[in-house]
Specification:
alpha/beta; Spore Coat Polysaccharide Biosynthesis Protein SpsA, Chain A; two-stranded antiparallel sheet; 7 helices
Length: about 230
C-alpha cells in the first residue's frame, strides 16, 4: 500500500543577503513569486500531496494576496513559523498526523523537479530518509588560523532539499532539545540516532540566497521554456 505523502515548505527568509526589503521567497522570478514556483513544483509532482506551508505570521497576508493575484487555489495548510528553522519545521510537522512520508523543502528552491521529489519519496520509503546532495565541482581547502590544507573533495557533498523522511521518525527526532549543530533536518534525524541516506540531487536545484542566485535561477527557468 502506498504511503501518504506530505510536503513541508519552510519559507522564513528575510531577504537581507539579497538586498531586498521584501522577504526573498516573495521576489519575482520569471513573472511569479519564488515561493509560488516552489509550491507549484510539488503539485506538479502530485495533485494528491498534502502540503504544509510554514511562514512568519506577518507574511500570511502577503501569501494570501499572491494566491488571489495568481488565482492559486490548491489546498494548503498554513502554519506559523518559529524563531529558527528547527522550530519552524517542528511547527509544520505538528500539522501532520498518522503515518506517511514527508519531504521538507526550502521555499527558495523553486527549480526542484518532479523526478527529484519522486526519487526522494521512493528512497525514504525504503530507508527512512532520503536527502538530496551533489558532488563538489571545485577544489576545497580547510583553514586553521594562518594555515590551509587541501582536502579530498570526493569525500564531501553539498546538501540540498528535499530532505525526505518517515513522518514519525522525523517528528520524534524533533522532540530533542535544539542546539547550534542542528543546521538542517538531516542533522536532527542523525542526532536522534538515525542513519542518513543521500541520493543524487541536481545542480539546477539552487537555493536563492544572493542576488546572483536570482539571475541564475531566471536563466535556468527560461532555458526550460525554449
Amino acid at each position: 500500500m502506498d504511503q501518504k505523502e506530505y510536503a513541508l515548505i519552510v519559507a522564513g527568509g528575510k531577504g537581507t543577503r539579497i538586498n531586498s526589503k521584501l522577504p526573498k521567497q516573495f521576489l519575482a522570478l520569471n513573472g511569479k513569486p519564488i515561493l509560488l514556483h516552489t509550491i507549484e513544483a510539488f503539485f506538479n509532482y502530485s495533485e494528491k500531496i498534502s502540503l504544509v506551508l510554514v511562514l512568519p505570521q506577518d507574511d500570511f497576508g502577503i501569501w494570501q494576496s499572491i494566491c488571489k493575484e495568481f488565482k492559486f487555489n490548491k489546498p494548503i495548510i498554513l502554519q506559523t513559523g518559529g524563531d529558527t528553522r528547527f522550530q519552524s519545521v517542528k511547527n509544520g510537522l505538528d500539522k501532520m498526523e498518522g503515518e506517511g512520508l514527508v519531504a521538507i523543502h526550502d521555499g527558495v528552491r523553486p527549480l526542484v523537479s518532479s523526478d527529484l521529489i519522486g526519487a526522494s519519496f521512493r528512497l525514504a520509503a525504503v530507508h527512512g530518509s532520503a536527502v538530496a546532495a551533489v558532488r563538489l565541482k571545485e577544489s576545497i581547502r580547510i583553514t586553521d588560523q594562518d594555515t590551509t590544507k587541501a582536502v579530498d573533495r570526493s569525500k564531501f557533498r553539498l546538501i540540498q532539499t528535499p530532505q525526505t523522511f518517515d513522518l514519525q521518525l522525523i517528528k520524534n527526532a524533533h522532540q530533542a532539545k535544539e542546539d547550534a549543530s542542528l543546521t538542517d533536518d538531516a542533522s536532527v534525524a542523525e542526532k536522534a540516532g538515525h542513519k542518513i541516506s543521500l541520493f543524487e540531487g541536481s545542480y539546477e536545484n539552487i537555493k536563492i540566497t544572493t542576488p546572483e542566485d536570482l539571475v541564475v535561477a531566471e536563466a535556468l527557468m527560461k532555458s526550460k521554456l525554449v
